[in-house]
Please model this.
Amino acid sequence: MSLRKYLARLKQTDYLIRKKATGNSASLAKKLNLSKAGVYKFLQEMKDEGFPICYRKKRKTYFYTEEGKMAEELFEKEISNGQMRKISGGKSFFIFFFRL
Model:
């Protein structure tokens, strides 16, 4: 499979998971033009790359256990405002490293 096709499938899968519109594995297989085994392998690859994917039997759909989105083709967790305030950087960072 070409990289372009793989990334397109990754983006489509991410979109369907965020919208909770995957359906069961057979339904997702049809949407992605894969076999059920291919879907399981693809989802496992996504999990290995950090995508927090689970399946909800009651709704018959895959979902993320944490809020987030794809960034640079990988899953990136969203940072809350409180967490952003704890991140240091800016002027003191440049002073330390560049002696401005």
